[in-house]
Amino acid sequence: MTESTDLLIDTPAPRVRRLTLNRPAARNALSTAQLGLLGDAFDAATDDDAVSVVILTGGEKIFAAGADIKELASSTPVTALLDARVAHWQRIRRFPKPVIAAVCGYALGGGCELAMHADITIAGQGARFGQPELNLGVVPGAGGTQRLARIAGQQIAMKLILSGETLTAAEAHACGLVAEVVPDGEVSARAVALAVKISEKPALAVRLAKELVLASRDMPLEHGLQFERKAFSTLVATEDFREGVDAFIEKRSAIFKGR
Ligand code: CAA
Fold first, then answer.
1. Does ligand 1 have an atom closer than 6 angstroms to the CB of 26?
2. Which string of DSSP letters, residue by residue, matches 153-198?
3. Interval 120-152: pLDDT, tens
4. Ligand 1 and 130: CB distance under 6 A
5. Rounded distance between C-alpha atoms, residue 30 and residue 106, angstroms
6. Which residues are catalytic, by number?
7. Alpha-carbon dihedral of residues 219, 173, 169, 41, nearest 10 degrees?
8. Is the CB of 69 within 6 Å of ligand 1?
9. Which of 41, 90, 92, 103 has the most CB atoms within 10 Å of its CB?
10. Whose CA is nearest to atom 8 of ligand 1?
11. Of 69, 145, 160, best ligand 1 pocket probe by most atoms within 8 Å of the beta carbon
12. Using a 6 Å cutoff on CB, does residue 140 contact ligand 1?
């Protein structure tokens, strides 16, 4: 994994890896290099058995102001088609463990798209979400038109993308773009608390649960239900299932091993 001060990596609690975008002078704009660092960090967290959950944040002032517009300025159709960023986004999208976005301040353009790559978003009261790419003469380029319409609905997606207006944290919560809104100063603590809770669950069930919920976007209900039944049937063969039911019956806390 490449070390860089543009992306801070720490462990705020056992089994929780936190990735903090750290380009404050550029408002955490997602340059190709920055996205590459994120891709590397997600790959490393995939391979690391000591990591159960990833928290993605931009710190207390801003989540991310989107793609790096200064870099984008030299785009041509050819560079846009061959863009390394596409592969970096794919690495983030395919991360199999839970991701919690902790959002304070602006999440705009690629920043909003990055938040939508997370499984759960905790927003501070002052957070703002938007897709202002039309102001630059382009459309969102990292899934904004597709994800926003699926997550928040066509009306909200059209309003944000066509007008460039932003949503407040409360509005984002009302349309399902974020799971929870807390005071700005509590975003980090809440994200860590939630990550710890998830990290204590049986890892195989967590992994399949994420896969199943994401599959529900693309699968017809009948196929999704079959997929769920097969996952359920597989999990009853795990040691963690035995431990979970034994612990319940014996009125004690379960200790899961991820097997
Ligand atoms: N790319 C590159 N640099 C950026 C940037 C971005 N997306 N956003 C801000 N910056 C830079 C500014 O150029 C400025 O740099 P200098 O000091 O060198 O002049 C510095 O960050 C501070 O910017 P502001 O003075 O504008 O900061 P602010 O706090 O007053 O405002 C902001 C913050 C509301 C986020 C504002 O900077 C802004 O609107 N940024 C652009 C947002 C945007 O249009 N995002 C969409 C990008 S396109 C995209 O994301 C495509 C995609 O889908 C993949």
1. yes
2. -HHHHHHHHHH---EEHHHHHHTTS-SEEE-GGGHHHHHHHHHHHH
3. 999 999 999 999 999 999 999 999 999 999 999
4. no
5. 13
6. 67, 110, 113, 133
7. -40
8. yes
9. 103
10. 65
11. 69
12. yes
Tokens of 159: 């309003």
142 pocket-lining for ligand 1 (C-beta < 6 Å): yes
Residues in the chain: 259
**Residue 4 and residue 23: Cα distance in Å, rounded?**
11
Closest CA to 149 of 176, 126, 169: 176
Atom 10, ligand 1: residue with shortest CA distance: 26
Contact (Cβ atoms closer than 8 angstroms) between residue 49 and residue 11: no
Q: Determine the Cα–Cα distance for residues 104 and 52; give it in Å rounded to an integer.
A: 23
Residue 142's pLDDT is what?
96
pLDDT in tens, 164-186: 999 999 999 999 999 999 999 99
Strands laid side by side in the 106-108 sheet: 106-108, 128-130, 167-168
193 is written with which tokens? 């608390």
Q: Which of 6, 21, 23, 27 to mutate to test the pocket of ligand 1 (most atoms within 8 A of CB)?
A: 27
H/E element, 106: strand 106-108
CB-CB neighbours of 5 under 10 Å: 7
Residues ≥6 apart with Cβ < 8 Å to 151? 116, 175, 176, 177
Contact 194, 120 (CB under 8 A): yes
- Ligand 1 centroid distance, CA of 189 (Å): 27
Cα 64 versus chain centre, distance = 13
